């Protein structure tokens, strides 16, 4: 894999699951520009890798990611911020067509919370916390939180987090719709990998279209979303996996999906 293996570790793909680990524990996995670039490159590579069917993202050390690296940003001008190319790095993560599961322990703050929200599933352990504290240092979220929090939680739950900068714990995140499930401390990664392996056994083309249609439809009128769903549903009847899946069901055996 290209990028910086010292700051982003990729474990060998096992049973269709790729695991990425943020590896700046001494900086609480702060999202430095090299780490952002490595993440973007990794997502692009994983998207092209047919052996990978689901991706898990976790953090080494005491937390998932404690936000942007302020040492890089404190003295920048607006034009310098624009030239950092950060939005292109975020877009590479958003463009990942395969399911992405975030395994969150400890703080996921600022850019770390935004990174978790790029996932399709968030597994948090009991030590996790989520927050957007940008307002406490004189700025605002810049990686999508003002939009993703509103869509995930609704206005009257998202705005207190955005305006006060206060974090919520794992139980609150689950209640607010910011986590998919909460597991005991230290078990987020194992549970995320378990879920990823389950997804990896499903038909890859159907999985890709489910993600694509669900995300596209979320920002479209209902009628448009339903039309996208119907067309994608119909297209799956041209796949070998559809024939395999239905015949396996009728024959009472486990299907073997090949992504064709």
Q: Determine Rg (CA atoms, Å).
A: 19 Å
User: Helix count?
Assistant: 12
- Strand tally is 9
CATH classification class of the largest domain: Alpha Beta
Order of H and E elements:
EEHEHHHEEHEEHHEHEHHHH
N-to-C terminal Cα separation, in Å?
Answer: 26 Å
- Low-pLDDT residue spans: none
**Number of structural units classed as domains:** 2
Instruction: Give helix % range.
Output: 40-55%
> What is the averaged pLDDT score?
94
How much of the sequence lies in strands comes to 5-15%
Give the structural class: alpha/beta
The CATH architecture name of the largest domain reads Alpha-Beta Complex
- So, the CATH homologous superfamily of the largest domain? 2-enoyl-CoA Hydratase, Chain A, domain 1
CATH fold category name of the largest domain: 2-enoyl-CoA Hydratase, Chain A, domain 1
Give the overall silhouette.
globular
Report on the biggest sheet.
6 strands, mixed
Task: Tell me the strand order in the biggest sheet.
Answer: 1-2-3-4-6-9
Features:
260 residues, alpha/beta, 2-enoyl-CoA Hydratase, Chain A, domain 1, Lyase 2-enoyl-coa Hydratase, Chain  A, domain 2, 2 domains, 6-stranded mixed β-sheet, 3-stranded mixed β-sheet, 12 helices, 9 strands, 14% strand
What is the secondary structure topology, with strand pairs?
Blueprint: E1 8-10, E2 17-22, H1 33-48, E3 54-59, H2 70-73, H3 78-83, H4 86-94, E4 100-104, E5 107-109, H5 111-117, E6 121-125, E7 129-131, H6 145-153, H7 155-164, E8 168-169, H8 170-176, E9 181-183, H9 188-200, H10 204-218, H11 222-235, H12 240-250
Parallel strand pairs: 2-3, 3-4, 4-6, 5-7, 6-9
Antiparallel strand pairs: 1-2, 7-8
Helix pairs in contact: 1-4, 6-7, 10-11
């Amino acid at each position: 894999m290209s990028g910086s293996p010292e700051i982003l570790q990729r474990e060998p793909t096992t049973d269709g699951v790729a695991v990425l680990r943020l590896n700046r524990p001494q900086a609480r996995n702060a999202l430095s520009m090299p780490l952002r670039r490595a993440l973007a490159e990794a997502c692009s590579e994983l998207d092209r890798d047919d052996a990978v069917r689901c991706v898990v993202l976790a953090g080494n050390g005491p937390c998932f990611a404690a936000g942007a690296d302020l040492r890089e940003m404190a003295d920048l001008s607006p034009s310098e911020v624009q030239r950092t190319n950060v939005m292109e790095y975020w877009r590479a993560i958003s463009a990942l067509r395969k399911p992405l599961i975030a395994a969150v322990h400890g703080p996921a703050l600022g850019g770390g919370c935004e990174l978790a929200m790029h996932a399709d599933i968030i597994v948090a352990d009991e030590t996790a916390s989520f927050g957007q504290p940008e307002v406490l240092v004189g700025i605002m979220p810049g990686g999508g939180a003002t939009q993703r929090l509103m869509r995930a939680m609704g206005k009257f739950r998202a705005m207190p987090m955005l305006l006060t900068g206060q974090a919520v714990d794992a139980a609150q995140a689950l209640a607010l719709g910011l986590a998919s499930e909460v597991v005991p401390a230290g078990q987020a990664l194992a549970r995320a990998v378990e879920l990823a392996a389950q997804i990896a056994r499903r038909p890859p083309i159907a999985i890709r279209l489910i993600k694509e249609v669900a995300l596209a439809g979320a920002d479209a009128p209902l009628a448009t979303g339903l039309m996208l769903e119907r067309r994608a549903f119909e297209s799956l009847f041209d796949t070998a996996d559809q024939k395999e899946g239905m015949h396996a069901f009728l024959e009472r055996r486990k299907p073997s999906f090949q992504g064709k």
